[in-house]
Amino acid sequence: MNKTVNITIDGRQIMAEAGRNLVDVARENGIFIPSLCYYAHLEQPLGTCRVCTCHLNGKAGVACTEKVHEGLSVVVNTPELNDLRKAVVEMMFAEGNHFCPACEKSGNCDLQHMGYELGIAGARFPHLFEDRIIDFTSTRMIMEHNRCIKCRRCVEEIFTDDGKRVFTYVNRGNETVVGIDYEQESRLSEAQAVNAMRICPTGAIIVRGADMSQPFGERKFDMESVQVEQAPAAKEPAVKTREKKVIATVSLAGCFGCHMSMLDIDTGLLDLLEFVEIHKSPLTDFKKFGKRCHLGLIEGGCCNSENVETLREFRKNCDILVSVGECAIWGGLPAMRNTIPLGECLEEAYLTAPLHEPGAGVVPYHEDLPKILDKVYGCSEIVQIDYFIPGCPPSATHIWKVVENLLWGEKHSILYSEFKYD
Amino acid sequence: MTNPNRTQLLNRLWEFQRRAGYIRDADIQACAQWLDISAIEVEGVASFYHFFHRQPAGAIQIYLDNSIVAEHSGFEAIKTAFEQATGAKMGGVDPSGSFGLFATPCIGLSDQLPAALIGFQPFTNLTPEKVGRIVREMKQGASPESICDTVESNIRYLPPEDRTIFFRECETGSALRQAAALGPAGVIAELKMAELNGRGGAFFPTWIKWNACREQPGTPKYVVCNADEGEPGTFKDRVLLQENPESVLEGMLIGGYTIGASEGIIYLRAEYTWLLPRLEATLADFRKKGLLGKDAGGLKDFDFDIRIQLGAGAYVCGEETAMLESMEGKRGEPRTKWFFPVEKGFLQQPTLINNVETFAAAAHITGMGASVYNQRGIPGSPGTKLISVSGDCHKPGLYEIEWGMPVAELLDLCEAEDPYFMQVSGPSGECISMAEKDRRISMLDLMVHKDIRCGGSFMIFNRQRDLVRVLLNFSAFFKHESCGVCTPCRAGNFILQRQLEKLDRHLAQPADLDTIRNWGAIMKATSRCGLGKTAPNTPIMAMEKFYDYFVARLGQPANSLNKSFDLERATAAYEKYKS
Fold it and tell me: Which of A50, A183, A303 is the best mutation test for B, with the most CBs of B within 10 A?
C-alpha cells in the first residue's frame, strides 16, 4: 500500500492512498464527477470524453487522468465548471446525429442520461449534420456511426478469445470513426457481442434481436422521480391578480405533437383561458395577426421558405418568442434529412423510389409552393428566440409552467419527471 | 507482450505504398497476418496518415503545399497549372493513372513557395510555366529525382562577430569528448547553467528532462530526436539537418551517454524524405569514425547507434507521445499524461525526446561550455534561436538571432513589406500586431517581461491580406490534423471553422465573435493534448488585437430580432427544379 496523502475536493479534506485515480477517490467520498469513458480497471485511463473536467490546483484538467498526490486541490462544483462539462456533452450532441426518439438505446443511454443530469436544454453549438453511415455489413451487429462519441471503450474492451481487436479507430480528424472488423466480430460469442452493445455509452453498437429485449419504461435510466413539488406558497392571490394576456402559437416543420401536448392539461385549459386569449394559432384557426401578442409559442423548425416567412411574422408580432420542443430548437426529427443533400432527398422521394413509374415522376415546383430549404434550420438560426422548452414533446405541465412564469412572473420549478420525456 | 515486429508497421506500409502507389486490401491482410492482429487494426493505422492511400493514387504523386503562405504566393495558379498539365483534378488521379494530385499542409519550404513534393522530391519556387515543363519531362520518362530542385538553405542572418552557435566551426566528436570529461552530472549542470529549453516550442527545461531520464532505473532507455517539424511556417530543423546534421547526431550521442541509452531514433517527417540520403551518409560516416556503434566515440561500454524512422503525414505526431505511438507502429494519437515519456516512453521504456534544434544546442553548449554560450542573448534567456521567416518580406529564410532581439529588428532584417499581422510559432502560437513591434523575442516570462517566445515559425502578413482567410486556413489545418480522439478538438475545430465561415460570408453578428471566444476557451480548457488546447489561440487573440477589422467583417447590422439568414443561398439547391 502506498502512503496516504491529503487532498481537498471542493474544500473538503480527504485522505487517500497516493497514486490512486481521482475519479475513484472522489466517488468513494460521495463526490460525483460526471464521466462517460472512465473505466476503473484500465491502468492507462482513456481520457477521451473530457466530461470529468475539473480544476486541479487551479488549472483545468480531467479527473480521470489525475493520480492523487499530497496537496492536490480539486474543484468540481462551480457554475463555471458545471457549464464547461455541459458544453463538452453539448458538443457531442452537436457533432453526432442524435435522434433519441428514434433510438433503440433510449433509456439505456449514458449520453442521454448525462444530457438530463447536466440540464441540457438548448443548442449552444450549431449542429454539424455530417453524413455518417450506418454499417449493416455484419450479420449480427449494426454500427450506427451517427451516434458514436468515440469514447474508445469498445476499442479497449472487446477482444476475441485469441486477443484480437474487434473495433479500432479509423481515419483521422473529424472523419474519425470506430471501424469494426467483420471477421473478428463473427468470432465473438453472443454474450461478448451483447457486452459490446452494453458498454457502448450511446446507441452506436446495436446487436440485432437483442436491442429491444428490455422494454422502454423499464430501462436503466427509466427511474421514477422521487422529487416532490414544493408547495406553491401563495399561489392563490397571485392568480387573482393576473391580467389577461394574448398568446399565438404555430407549428412549422413539426408534427403537431407539441400542440397535442399543450392540450394535455385537459380541463386545466379552461382555467387557463380565463387569463389567456389565444390569438393566431391552429387552435383558433386565425390565419393572420390582428393584434400584438405577448407571447408566441413556436413548434417545429424551418424546412421551407414559408416557415421562414411565418417565423419572421411571429417575431414581428410577439413580445416574447419561445421554441417549444426539439424541432423548433435545432431541427429535431425532420433534420434527419440534413446529412443528405436536398437533391438526393427529392429525387428519391419523387423520381427514383421503387413505387414510381420510371420517367413519370416530377419534383414539384410552382411559384405558389413554398421553396424547400437546403436543410432544416432551428428557429434561432433565423430570428432571435428568447426561451427554449426542450422535449419531444415537452409535457403539458412543463409548457404551461413556463408560460405562467413568462407572462406573470410566477415562480415555477420543473420536476425531473416533467423534464424527462422519453 | 506486443509483437516486436509492430514497430516496423509504418515501414512495411511504406513498402506497399511505394510498390503499388497505394495500399491494397491484400497488403492490409498481409500485415495483419504478419503481426497476428485483426485487419481493422492495420486499417486504423494506415488510414491515420495522409501519405498512405487506400485507393489507387497515381504512379507519380504530387503534393502541393497549401499553407497560408503558399496560398498568398499563388497556390491557386499552381494548382490549376498542375491540373491542366496532368489531367488530374485536385484530390484525384488522371484517367491514365499516371499522376495523383493532392494538397498537403506545410512541407517545410515556406521560404521558397509555391512548392510541391513530387515522388517526395522537392520542387520549389514554382511558376505555371515551370509546372508545365516539369510535367512534360515526367511524361517523357524523367524521374522526379532526376529533375527536382536543390533546396536552398537561405541562411539570411547569423549573429555578427562569430557569435553564431549553430553554425560555429567545430570538430565533429569534440563535444562528445567534452561530455565524457564532464560526466553525466556535469553535462546536466552545463545544460542547466545554459538554461536550455525545448526548442520544439514547449520550452520545457532540457536539463530537468535529461536528469529525470537519467534517474530512471529501467533499461533499455531510448533517445528520440523529434524531426517531425510540422508547425506551418517552420523550416529551421530542415536547414539544420541539411547544413549541420553532425551537431544533431552528436547531441543525441551526448544525450544517450548522459542518460545511459543504447539506441537513438530520429523520427523524420515524410515531407523530408529527400533529406534521407544526406542523413544516412552522415550516420555511415559516424560509424566509420567510430562515433556510433560499440564503444561509441571511444567511450568504453557506451554502445550507441542511431536509426531513422520515417513518418507518414500527420502533424499531431510532432506531439511527443503521439510520436511514440507512431514509432510503435500505431495510430499517432497523443497519450494521456498518466506517465511521462522519461518514465514510460518508447515501448514503455524510459525515453528522452528532444527537438532537432535542442539536440544541436545541447552539443554546442557541451562543446563550447555554458559560460561561453551564455555570452549570447540576454540575462535569463541566454543563447541564440533559429527562426524561420516567411510571408510578406523580401528575404524569407533562416535567421539565427540572439534571444532578446526586438520584433522590429527582425522585421527590418528580413525587409518586411508593410507588415500588419505577424504569426509567431505557427498557427498554434500567437499573433501580434505592429503595436507590439518593440516586444523582444526571448524565453523570459511572458507575464512580467511581455517578451514573446518563438518556437521557430515567423510568418508576416501585410495589410492587403485577408485575416479571416488566414484564420480559415489555420482552422482547416487543425480540423484536418486533429487526431480525432477527444471531442473538444475533433468537433470543436469543426465548429470554429463554421463560425469563421459565417464571418467570411458576412453573415456573422456581434454575438458570433463572442462564441468564437467562448467556445475557444472551452476547447482550451478541455482538450486532451496541446493541439486542441492551442488551436483556438489565434482566432481569440486576433479578435482582441484586430477588433476593428473583425467588426468590419460582420453582417449588415440586422435589427436585434432578425438574424442574417441567407434565404437565397438556402433555396439555391431547390431552384434547380424550376422548369
Answer: A50
